Amino acid sequence: MARTTDPSVYAIAPGRPFLDLLAHGILQQQGGDPLTLSRVTVLLPTRRACRALAEAFLRQSDGTALLLPVIRPLGDVDEDELELRGKADERSDALPFGTLERSLLLARLVQASPLAGGDSANALRLARELGHLLDAAATEEVGLDRLPDLVPAELAGHWQQTLDFLKIVRETWPAIKAEQGRSDSAEHRQHATQRWIEHWQKTPPTGPVIAAGSTGTIPATARLLKLISRLPQGSIILPGLDRGLDEAAWAAVQDEPTHPQHALARLLDTLGVMRDDVVDWPHSLASAGKSDQGRAGLLTAALLPPAESHRWRDLRGGIAADALAGLQRIDAPGPREEALSIALAMRETLETPGRTAALITPDRMLARRVCLELARYGITVDDSAGMPLIQTAPAVFLRLLAAAVAEDFAAVPLLALLKHPFCRVGMARGDLLRWTRRVERKLLRRSRPAVGLVQLVSDLASKPDLLPPLARLAAIAETMQSEDGQTTTLKTLLQVQVIAAEALTVAPDQPTPLWQQDAGEALHALVVDLLDASDQFGAVTPAEWPRLLDALLEGQVVRPRRPSHSRLAIWGLLEARLQQADRIILGGLNEGTWPPQAKEDPWLSRPMRAALGLSSPEFRLGQTAHDFVQAASGGDVILTRAAKVDGTPTVPARWLLRLEALLDEKDVRWQGSLAPQYLAWAEQLDTPAQSLKFDPPKPAPPVTARPRSLPVTDIETWIRDPYAIYAKRVLGLRRLDPPDQPPDARLRGNVIHAVLEKFQQRHMATLPDDAAALNELFDLGRIEFGTWLEQPDIAALWWPRFERAMRWFLAYERERRSDGFRPALLETKGATELVAPGGAFTLEARADRIDRHDVDGRLAILDYKTGNPPTPKQVNSGLAPQLALEAAIAQAGGFEGLSPAGIAELVYIRLGGGAEPGEAKRIEGTSRTEIPPADDLAREALARLSGWVAWFDDETKPYLSRPRPQFVDYPGDYDHLARVAERAEGTGEGQ
């Protein structure tokens, strides 16, 4: 292709300080005259690059005061400047739609579509996707009017549904823009850029114009670059043009969108410039060093287009010996190790005065991890790509408030709101936390149906010291609550939310922290924009608000105003373009992260995009590949990746795999590039200099501090895990239930115990007929379950099991009474005293049920179970002594109203309600073990207990943790205190 003019196109090789060379060259061109320098216009790809170029001028001038050139980002056209110069015309666009305003307006259109599913948050997300399609079409100058012609109607019925939906962007949206005389932002920028082109064509600028660092991926920008290259004093400076590729490979690059040179190849074609006509930026810089030709040759060979990769065998011998000099690799086991290794590499850089380091990664989670790891050294580094607004403290508080209102202030969302650092409820923060802990323990940490804030206020009516803060919270919350299903406007919901949030975050003599610092200011700006644009949105129900709020916050980013560290930086891919540092660390080099996974268009298939004229999804991969090559070409580069993320093996970035394939994994240079020292340092950092050896806990409190009474339910625990009794009875520790504990087996057991107790009390002598008895049992069950039955899982699963269990129980009860047994006591407390070396020891019990036989007057001890009862062998061995000890108390006349008597039987009644609804398990002999008669079993259990009490009345005898672990097959409440897990892993006892 022959050029028709003489364009001025230069290139700066990868690995060289682009902006310093650019600034140095411009200063040389202008001869140091500050007035002349101010006439120069420099166009760069990003605003951050513009700020960095200004700093580069200061470096190159050694701090001398300068009138800097006009530095602006490409595409950021100043419309007012055009008008002041009298260059605006009738095509000048009115105010373009802001991204937020357009999304809300499009969402209102989407809400009318069945694709939105009647959900406002879903409608907003779909509207954003439509906005992306509009921006892509405007940026690539593609009309959407040809959408109906992409697929014949008879080939795809579902496409017709999508096509009907896309009428929003084909017909409705253009009509709205025409009616309001406005345009999309991308469309506005494209038109403004085109007007600048036309303006400069008619009136070329009198001063030098330099466009640097752009790959011209936007058609309007590429045309502007073409014009600049042909201006009398215009120049184009390309970043990292690869002139090492031969012609065959270069031809293949133009058809391979994932290649790092693909965008530059297209740009050269637009400019009408041959690659050989591009020359190096001629203005050298002594401090910049030379471009690393060996590394450039290695990357050129490794990243050959797939059609040319068969040449690797021939290219291996031509790789320069120093191609990997200054390149290091870290293959970390996981993200934590990767982040810590990167932090150590950055910290190492600070050991050399004046030396700088930067992490470049698209993985924002990795960036946050590195920031946290650097904080252990007191080093504060912000991620310049920003933090998602939705994750910041002010936004989280708004989300917690919305969720709490939507769930009527159930325990979990209420506690999350109260414990947020911003929450005050008109109190000092410390006072609020102390009040919250008291309310939490008294009201919220128990199993009960979810209740609202009004019920909580009622529960605290008798506790005036706890009521006022909750009453204030209820008054504030009342302003946010409305009738279910009632629709309102986005503006109303947002205003009410903000007013309530401010009221909740104000403390005495302290303003609200909601709008403070970078995150608060960003949230305030978003709220103001939302209030201005909220009229564009459709009706919303309060139940939708939490999800809609999340959708509104998504995609918003809080960026630091200025670098937090002068020598360390963390950049995203866009922020890193044209930037420089002495050490460059490329993090997150895994497929799907860097390079990212090609994002599929939710509306158009690949053939449709191609037919419409849109670029393929892989085009972005070529841009990220160019970013990789530019960064990896430096003199001190570290490449990092994690072998596993969230326990899942990862695939190395294709560029790493290509380097390994080209060099051969056995190549000593490739193996030598590994930098295990960082991983070793990371491991040593958290490894103590000396491992502390510890034995299992052996607390031996004085006898006076040891319990002198225990219920029979604790005796089994005392036998199997004495340490649990020490923690519970000596230290006084209790396990806290989770807030609003969901219904569990304990609740079901309590319900069954209460139902059977009340039923038996009414019918101690005789039973009613089956129909009346069952109705009575079911009525009692409904009363005891109460509002729990309103929950679908309770009604569908528990209630049928309860009915089956009650039917079985009634049949069993009739059979039992026909055998001569009648209830004597129900849910009755009893006790007996044992003589022990440390003084009297009281054994306490609460028997579920004790029956007396009509003929011989002997007693039967019964216990209701909803789970599996102990086996006869466990009872006989003393590991499960509950029933036997209750029998011993009954033998001694320890139950009030029951005289001493012999024991006829011990019976466990299991009421599961499953396939086998119930079972009466009588403790009796088996084929392997003969169980003694119940009287003897009771006496033996009491004798064992007496010996056990005497053993622990010796203060040299410790309360051991699980001394017989084979008999403890369940987690205990105090296992963490006894370091059970550590001992099981072999890191404690005997280490």
UniProtKB/TrEMBL annotation:
Q: Which Pfam families match?
A: PDDEXK_1
- Official protein name in the record: Double-strand break repair protein AddB
Give the organism's phylogenetic lineage: Bacteria, Pseudomonadati, Pseudomonadota, Alphaproteobacteria, Rhodospirillales
Q: Which gene encodes it?
A: addB
Q: Where is the PD-(D/E)XK endonuclease-like domain?
A: 712-941
